[in-house]
Specification:
heterodimer; A: globular; B: 85 residues; flat
């Protein structure tokens, strides 16, 4: 009887999911309500978790709860600490959820809601969750070793080096692109800039409190910090209204970029307790709160999606970024569907804290499903905007024109209704001077979130506060990624530089810290500056680069996972990791090829460089702009070289791995696993 | 009934754990557990091999104060990738 009820329940959930997905895919008569998206996502996640992840846990990995985990065997109270799975899933989710699942779907909304939503749901269930789960399992079986160490031991030494270089590359491009998102969101915005600037003294205050007044009392310090940040958001309206203060906090894009570069350098070199850690606590609290509020708001307000299922920009000529759905939708949405960066968290602190092997399923697979849901919510928020408004915010001035009239005329010519008055009224309602040419995704997401939040609490009266709350929330945790990423990047550069000149490699050496911080900040700062100067907005070239680098890292993770499965004698199940890996290779290689060689200058770096060079030769560029244009040509060639390097790295890794797989399958090489030896658990065996 | 009665306390405890507020208590508990296991092992060793010196864990080091532990935990966390994109 119980079994029959279960069957009925799961059949109902599966049918609800299938019905909602069918409605999203095929309904064209009237705008869809967000409820369809919530039902489709949640039903698919439930079915995927209940059946697919269980299959992977039981058949593919054969999780063994009688085996002691590193947290039990190596418990030391510092790194190896046995932790309840419900606490660890919170830690893990807070670590993997960054700006990616919010910004990526917002940018991909230019294709319409359909491609991005399907990729978010299906990509996560069959790709991202599988990667996170299996890498977590592999790391648990290897005493918490990192992805790079596993690649070196299980694939080849070169595989390990590729993993290290991929991490460094992704770190540099990621930091540049997220910094660019902040610049685009805060330029000419005194309210937003004031709020974000206030988070620095608030974090410093928290840092001093946590270090000297009440050491380690994270909760009370964070609650106080959150209250002060909220006060800063509300006070921002008075700064915005005052002519003196407003001009003091109004910055152009280049000025903001320089300020962020200087901030990144300071944050990387300062003691971690002073700025980085308190900002991280603050950001984690606000992040989790805002994401939960967005999910509740979407369910409560049930907005209608105004964006069509597919827009005309599936042809590859989109204003937000150029390129067709395949491969660019799958490159643009990385973190909400599959993200190589997650493999670093799954092989970082989480495997050292897990109590039992079976918890890897809930934490690895489950947390990624939650992240995918965040991506779906971001897609809903972006698509709830009128398409004309969405394109006016996200299109660079280089494409739609610099004035409201020109932008409205261009967007109307694409078939989306927009009058110039709409944009100025909307900007006024959210407390901004203008919302035009705000590329990067953050402002349009903030408008979408503000409409959902104000539909729940406060109505029109609080729209501007909610908008600036959303901007602050996005900018705050982007700055946290910037701080933490620059610091980790500094350690990596220090490790590499130590091979060249030993003093640079010493972690405590002041010269080493200052020099390697400058190198790291200089690297991402260069790409940021390039993005700020780009007449096409910068996102068009930098976000795809970031997507390619991130998916390259996912390829590394899936190659490692496939190799380990083969060595474990699970050849019949390797399609579980092989299929998403082949898909990623297809999209990264196609995207890399198009970004380098496409004849369309908005897509291909080389053709854009060629067009600019031809303009200089023909005298079409005024003399005073020749130097800038020559820099743009150099930047395009540099981007092409970076893309080519990433593509070559994928190919080298694949050749290495395929050679290893053939040798193992043909019996020419013994399948030597580098797992830690089995030790039986001493804790209540077998239980969950 | 017990679950319903205890839920505010359970939620509070979960929030403290997830936020890292309870990290020092966890450290103390963990260190005591390890020390206890070591003592047990030493007793068994002294009975079977007459040598209570074979533990591989370095738990005999002095306990860190709350402030020292806080700084040590931050140093460890931010030496590796701790936040994703």
């Amino acid at each position: 009887m119980k079994s029959l009820l279960k069957t009925i329940l799961w059949t109902a959930i599966a049918l609800a999911g299938a019905g909602a997905l069918a409605a999203i895919a095929f309904e064209r008569r009237e705008p869809l309500n967000a409820v369809w998206f919530v039902v489709a996502a949640l039903s698919t996640y439930l079915v995927a978790y209940r059946f697919y992840s269980k299959f992977i846990a039981a058949k593919v990995l054969a999780l063994d709860n009688t085996r002691a985990t590193p947290a039990e065997r190596l418990e030391d109270g510092h790194d190896f600490v046995p932790t309840s799975k419900w606490v660890l899933i919170g830690h893990h989710f807070a670590a993997i959820a960054g700006p990616g699942p919010l910004v990526g779907p917002t940018l991909a909304a230019q294709f319409g809601y359909l491609p991005g939503t399907l990729w978010l749901i299906v990509g996560a269930a069959l790709g991202g969750c599988v990667q996170d789960f299996i890498i977590l399992f592999c790391s648990i079986r290897r005493d918490g070793k990192s992805l790079g160490q596993m690649a070196r031991e299980e694939v080849s030494k070169r595989g390990g080096m590729i993993a290290l270089l991929a991490v460094l590359a992704i770190m540099i491009i990621l930091l540049a692109v997220v910094a660019l998102v902040i610049v685009k969101a805060l330029k000419e915005s005194p309210w937003g800039t004031f709020t974000l600037a206030m988070t620095i003294p608030i974090a410093l205050l928290m840092g001093i409190y946590l270090r000297y007044v009440r050491p380690g009392r994270v909760l009370e310090a964070s609650l106080g910090g959150v209250a002060l940040v909220m006060l800063a958001v509300v006070s921002g309206q008075w700064v915005n209204a005052s002519p003196v203060w407003s001009s003091a906090f109004t910055f152009s894009g280049p000025a903001l970029a320089l300020a962020i570069i200087a901030y990144g350098y300071a944050a990387s070199a300062l003691p971690v307790w002073l700025l980085l850690a308190p900002r991280d606590y603050l950001s984690a609290f606000i992040k989790v709160g805002a994401i939960a509020a967005l999910a509740i708001g979407v369910i409560f307000v049930r907005p209608t999606l105004e964006m069509p299922a597919l827009t005309r920009f599936v042809d590859g000529n989109g204003p937000v970024f150029a390129g067709k759905i395949f491969p660019f939708c799958f490159i643009t949405i990385a973190c909400g569907a599959i993200s190589g960066f997650h493999a670093l968290i799954s092989s970082g602190t989480t495997p050292k804290m897990i109590l039992r092997e079976s918890h890897a399923r809930t934490i690895g697979y489950g947390a990624m499903l939650m992240e995918s849901f965040v991506g779906v919510m971001a897609m809903v928020a972006a698509c709830a905007l009128q398409p004309g408004v969405y394109f006016a915010i996200n299109s660079p001035a280089g494409i739609v024109g610099k004035t409201a009239d020109a932008a409205a005329a261009t967007i109307r010519s694409w078939g989306y209704a927009l009058d110039p008055q709409t944009m100025s009224t909307l900007a006024q309602r959210v407390g901004e001077h203008t919302l035009l040419d705000r590329t990067g995704g953050a402002p349009s997401l903030a408008v979408g979130m503000a409409q959902i939040f104000s539909g729940t609490i406060g109505g029109e009266r609080l729209l501007s506060i909610w908008y600036h709350f959303a901007i602050m929330f996005e900018a705050l945790f982007i700055l946290t990624v910037l701080d933490a990423g620059t610091r980790v990047g500094r350690f990596m550069v220090q490790e590499l530089a130590g091979h060249v000149w030993k003093p640079l490699g010493k972690s405590g050496s002041t010269t080493g810290i200052l020099a390697t911080s400058a190198l790291m900040v200089g690297a991402w700062g260069y790409f940021l500056w390039q993005g700020v100067q780009d007449p096409l907005g910068g996102i068009n070239s930098l976000w795809p680069l970031f997507g390619i680098a991130n998916q390259l890292l996912a390829c590394v993770a899936l190659v490692v996972a496939t190799t380990i499965l083969l060595k474990m004698g699970r050849a019949r199940w390797i399609w579980v990791t092989l299929a998403p890996m082949l898909w990623l290779v297809a999209i990264t290689m196609t995207a890399s090829y198009q970004k380098i060689f496409s004849a369309n200058p908005r897509i291909g770096f080389l053709s854009q460089a060629k067009v600019l060079a031809a303009q200089i030769s023909s005298g079409a560029i005024p003399a005073e702009k020749i130097a800038v244009t020559q820099r743009l040509i150099f930047n395009n060639r540099l981007d092409a070289a970076v893309t080519a390097t990433l593509a070559v790295m994928i190919l080298v890794l694949l050749v290495e791995a395929i050679g290893e797989w053939i040798a193992i399958l043909s019996g020419r090489k013994p399948a030597v696993l580098h797992e830690s030896p089995y030790v039986a658990t001493k804790w209540a065996e077998g239980g969950d | 009934m017990k679950i319903v009665k205890n839920w505010p306390r359970n939620i509070w405890s979960w929030i403290r754990q997830v936020s890292g507020d309870a990290a020092y208590e966890n450290y103390l508990r963990s260190t005591r557990r390890v020390a206890h296991a070591e003592a047990e092992m030493a007793r068994v060793d002294s009975r079977t091999m007459q040598a209570g010196c074979c533990s591989t864990r370095a738990t005999s080091a002095q306990l860190l104060s709350r402030s020292e532990f806080y700084l040590d935990a931050l140093r460890r966390r931010y030496s590796t990738v701790s936040r994703c994109c």
